[in-house]
């Protein structure tokens, strides 16, 4: 796995109200927010109600609005629920989450995150570092750690 895809940073969703007048440029239309978010982050975690409510056309738009290396990580839902067919969409089963997701809000300790990144690098599997709350300070700290570690 390429080093630029070992650690992918993002948030749970991209529509955090607190981001409106700080993270997003003033006057950015709502339908451009995902494309802008993608310039800053490599992944987004989508709660089941959000991704299940999206039509096929909306999913096509989301995939078109993001770069090829961007990933959508889906909260598990009813196993019968259809998920979009794309290599950039991952269903985060509990076992997969345990092996691939670090929740910044729950464990903001950067030393522990650095240790986890090192262990993850040994496996070659990606680590998704997410903030449920969209805490931009924590996300920036994680991004800086990723750069310092060379990922």
Topology at a glance:
Layout: E1 7-12, H1 33-40, E2 43-46, H2 48-53, H3 56-64, E3 71-74, E4 89-91, H4 94-100, E5 101-103, H5 110-123, E6 127-131, H6 136-148
Parallel strand pairs: 1-2, 1-6, 2-3, 3-4, 5-6
Helix pairs in contact: 5-6
Task: Report on this structure.
This protein has helices at residues 33-40, 48-53, 56-64, 94-100, 110-123, 136-148; strands at residues 7-12, 43-46, 71-74, 89-91, 101-103, 127-131. The chain has 151 residues and is an alpha/beta fold. The chain has one domain (3-148). A 6-stranded parallel sheet has the order 4-3-2-1-6-5. The protein starts with 6 loop residues before the first strand and ends with a helix.
Note the main attributes of this structure.
six-stranded parallel beta sheet
> Helical proportion?
25-40%
- What's the arrangement of strands in the largest beta sheet? 4-3-2-1-6-5
Termini separation comes to 11 Å
Helix and strand element order: EHEHHEEHEHEH
Low-confidence stretches: none
> What gross morphology would you assign?
globular
Q: Give the count of structural domains.
A: 1
Largest sheet: 6 strands, parallel
Overall mean confidence score, pLDDT? 93
The assigned structural class equals alpha/beta
- Computed over alpha carbons, the radius of gyration is 15 Å
Q: How many strands?
A: 6
Strand content: 15-25%
Count of DSSP helices?
6
Short description:
The protein is of the alpha/beta class and 151 residues long.
């Amino acid at each position: 796995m390429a080093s630029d895809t070992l650690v992918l940073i993002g948030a749970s969703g991209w529509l955090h109200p607190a981001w409106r007048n700080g993270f997003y440029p003033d006057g950015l239309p709502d339908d451009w927010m995902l494309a802008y978010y993608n310039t800053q982050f490599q992944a987004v975690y989508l709660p089941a109600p959000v991704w299940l409510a999206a039509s096929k056309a909306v999913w096509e738009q989301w995939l078109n609005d993001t770069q090829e290396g961007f990933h959508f990580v889906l909260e598990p839902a009813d196993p019968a629920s259809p998920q979009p067919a794309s290599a950039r969409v991952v269903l985060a089963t509990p076992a997969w989450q345990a092996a691939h997701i670090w929740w910044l809000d729950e464990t903001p300790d950067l030393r522990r995150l650095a240790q986890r990144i090192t262990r993850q690098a040994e496996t070659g599997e990606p680590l998704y570092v997410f903030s449920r709350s969209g805490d931009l300070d924590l996300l920036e700290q994680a991004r800086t750690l990723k750069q310092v570690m060379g990922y």
